[in-house]
């Protein structure tokens, strides 16, 4: 695959789509998404060549954000930003409403090397902030919620965010492992649907809803990493196996894909805002190189172009 194409506006990056990456499912008082990124996880993670612990963290974050973005009811994107004071100082993942995924991380190589290979998210980030942003297209409102990092792993951090920032009962499990076939990443998200305040028997309804929610989370806890990361096990079969004693309804699968939105023209416009001294500093043998942190693609500009 060609990594450097100077004449094209868009980078030469993999065109990969997983048509059944997100499987939505529903219950009377809850909804959920089963996320299975399949070979897309390996393509995204291998592009960066991060240390094992950072790649594993990135895979879990990709599963989380793609699952959350699948619930968007408008054109836009859903993004995660985690800023830490530890070995990993920044993790950014975003996904569009139609499933286009990208991510990158910033970290101290020496600090990461000193940590165990299977370090938790808490060990990698240390103290910091966990933020989720919903961005609508066409310059409409942007919503961001932010909380302090709380929890040992990314699943717990996301659950804490929804409980404290959104007052939403959720159950989240994220998985990422390096298998003989490469990286696999997946997730299971359950969200409790609030009771309808217009119903007269509100207290009775809440009791029924709470009982169903407890049952669903108990059943969800039985899922194993081996099951959810097994590409031979179809998503519908996995969901029926998990929730066969409930009134589950499985929705239409949604795609996920490799999707970086960088472009040569966008970066060229950024370069045009620099003064001559800055451009001279960036100049290497008559060329200026700008690298997209999301897709690791190098755009090469001749200085006389700018």
UniProtKB/TrEMBL annotation:
This is Heat shock protein Hsp33. Keywords: Chaperone, Cytoplasm, Disulfide bond, Redox-active center, Stress response, Zinc. GO terms for molecular function: protein folding chaperone; unfolded protein binding. PANTHER family: 33 KDA CHAPERONIN. One of its GO terms (cellular component) is cytoplasm. InterPro entries: Heat_shock_Hsp33, Heat_shock_Hsp33_C, Heat_shock_Hsp33_N, Hsp33_helix_hairpin_bin_dom_sf. GO terms for biological process: protein refolding. Signal peptide: none annotated.
């Amino acid at each position: 695959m060609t990594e450097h194409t100077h004449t094209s506006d868009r980078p030469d990056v993999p065109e990969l789509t997983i048509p059944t990456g997100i499987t939505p499912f529903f219950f009377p008082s809850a909804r959920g998404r089963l996320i299975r990124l399949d070979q897309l996880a390996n393509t995204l993670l291998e592009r960066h060549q991060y240390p094992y612990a950072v790649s594993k963290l990135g895979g879990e974050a990709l599963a989380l954000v793609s699952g959350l973005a699948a619930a968007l009811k408008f054109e836009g994107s859903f993004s995660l930003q985690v800023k830490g004071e530890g070995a990993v100082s920044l993790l950014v993942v975003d996904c569009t409403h139609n499933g286009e995924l990208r991510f990158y991380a910033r970290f101290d190589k020496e600090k990461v090397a000193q940590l165990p290979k299977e370090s938790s998210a808490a060990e990698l980030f240390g103290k910091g902030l966990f933020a989720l942003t919903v961005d609508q297209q066409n310059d409409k409102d942007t919503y961001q919620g932010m909380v302090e990092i709380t929890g040992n792993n990314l699943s717990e951090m996301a659950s804490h965010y929804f409980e404290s920032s959104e007052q939403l009962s959720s159950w989240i499990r994220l998985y990422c492992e390096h298998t003989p076939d490469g990286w696999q990443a997946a997730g299971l998200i359950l969200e409790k649907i609030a009771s309808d305040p217009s119903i007269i028997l509100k207290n009775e309804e809440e009791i029924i809803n709470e009982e169903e929610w407890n049952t669903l989370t108990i059943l969800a806890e039985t899922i194993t990493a081996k099951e959810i990361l097994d590409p031979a096990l179809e998503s519908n079969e996995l969901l029926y196996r998990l929730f066969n004693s409930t009134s589950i309804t499985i929705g239409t699968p949604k795609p996920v894909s490799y999707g970086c939105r960088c472009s040569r023209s966008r970066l060229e416009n950024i370069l045009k805002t620099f003064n001559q001294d800055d451009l001279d500093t960036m100049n290497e043998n008559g060329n200026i190189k700008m690298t997209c942190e999301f897709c690791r693609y190098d755009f090469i500009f001749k200085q006389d172009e700018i």
